[in-house]
Design a protein that fits this description.
This protein has 359 residues and is an alpha+beta fold. Helices cover 36% and strands 14% of the residues. The strands form twelve sheets. The chain has a two-stranded antiparallel sheet with strand order 1-2. Keywords: DNA-binding, Metal-binding, Nucleus, Repeat, Transcription, Transcription regulation, Zinc, Zinc-finger. May be involved in transcriptional regulation.
Length: 359
């Protein structure tokens, strides 16, 4: 049974107990008091100012939290990076971002002494040391920290898929996979970024996205030191060093380091094209057609949080952001000069090579 308590005064915001009187000259947040708690997933405490619900009363009462949710609601970004002026909703996000300017790495591995900007990066690294003696799959040699994870993994080998989607009939080995899959049909995206309000169907996707704001790149190449936001990007990059090209075209034998490049190449043989219904222009990639359609619709969904300039492509926004951050990721190994764009870098290299492409 829910019991709603409403107390209103003139100034401030106070979150006292049910039977406590509010101090004078302070208003009291409206909250919902639930007589019996438990693990129901309910959020019984409500902020009267922004109507946001919380599981624990501490989210309202602890001074250090100070209505962090208010900044997300209002769009306020009170925390500013002293180096580049980038703004953040929350102070912890700013602290993480600033470590990449100072080079501060506060999280050190007790096994090998390697240090990291973030605790999440340290935890990811520590799995390298803990794999030995963990729960290992005999068939493929894959190791897991917990026995339950190994048991779940074995279902992949057995082919058991007990959880079926009643919308499309697709079945899954795990109930959690079915829950995630259903969001394709419902359109539910419950995980929202507090910085830009973009939402995601999976928490793992949100975690990866947050690295765009914090600058975190936890996956580092052991050969050249280049780091990446995603483990998949690191694996793809490592093929530059190994020269591995595992994806081979069955028609002509040409091989590729990325599966997406193979799929794109195969359209040379099949002749498959994606045509624009407005002007008849066709593309070998569906993603290229989607981007092209914005020429007709005028849609520019990617907006710069610094100057509000918008772009039709995410890649254009990423390049534009370097104007604000000062980032110049393309460095010439001959003279040390750096550039914002790869095209400018390639043009510069001709100074050293003497190449004259236009005759």
């Amino acid at each position: 049974m829910l019991e709603t308590l409403t107390l209103i005064s003139s100034l401030g915001c106070w979150h006292g107990g049910e039977d406590e009187a509010a101090p004078s000259k302070q208003s009291t947040c409206i909250y919902i008091y639930k007589e019996q708690g438990g693990h129901s997933g309910e959020r019984p405490y409500e902020c009267g100012e922004y109507r946001k619900l919380f599981k624990n009363k501490s989210f309202l009462t602890e001074p250090r939290r100070d209505h962090k949710h208010r900044n997300v609601r209002t769009g306020e970004r009170p925390y500013e990076c002293s180096k580049y002026g980038k703004l953040f909703h929350q102070n912890p996000t700013l602290h993480i971002h600033e470590r990449f300017h100072t080079g501060q790495k506060t999280y050190e591995c007790s096994e090998c002494g390697k240090s990291f900007h973030q605790s999440s990066s340290l935890l990811q690294h520590q799995t390298l040391h803990t794999r030995e003696g963990a729960y290992e799959c005999i068939k493929y040699g894959k190791a897991f920290a917990e026995k339950s994870s190994l048991i779940n993994h074995r279902k992949v080998h057995s082919g058991a898929k007990r959880y079926e989607c009643n919308e499309c009939g697709k079945s899954f080995a795990y109930s959690s996979s079915l829950i995630k899959h259903r969001r394709i049909h419902t359109g539910e995206r419950p995980y929202e970024c507090s910085e830009c309000r973009r939402s995601f169907a999976e928490n793992s996707s949100l975690i990866k996205h947050l690295r765009v704001h914090t600058g975190e790149r936890p996956y580092e190449c052991g050969d050249c030191g280049k780091s990446f936001r995603r483990s998949s990007s690191l694996l793809q990059h490592q093929r530059v060093h190994t020269r591995e090209r595992p994806y081979e075209c069955s028609e002509c034998g040409k091989s590729f380091s990325l599966r997406s490049n193979l799929i794109h190449h195969q359209r040379v043989h099949t002749g498959e094209r994606h045509e624009c219904g407005q002007c008849g222009k066709s593309f070998s990639r569906r993603s290229s057609l989607i981007i092209h359609l914005r020429v007709h619709t005028g849609e520019r969904p990617y907006e710069c949080s610094e100057c509000k300039k918008s772009f039709a492509e995410n890649s254009s926004l990423i390049k534009h952001l370097r104007v604000h951050t000062g980032e110049r990721p393309y460095e010439c190994i001959d003279c040390g000069k750096s550039f914002r764009h790869s095209s400018s870098f390639r043009r510069h290299q001709r100074v050293h090579t003497g190449m004259r492409p236009y005759k």
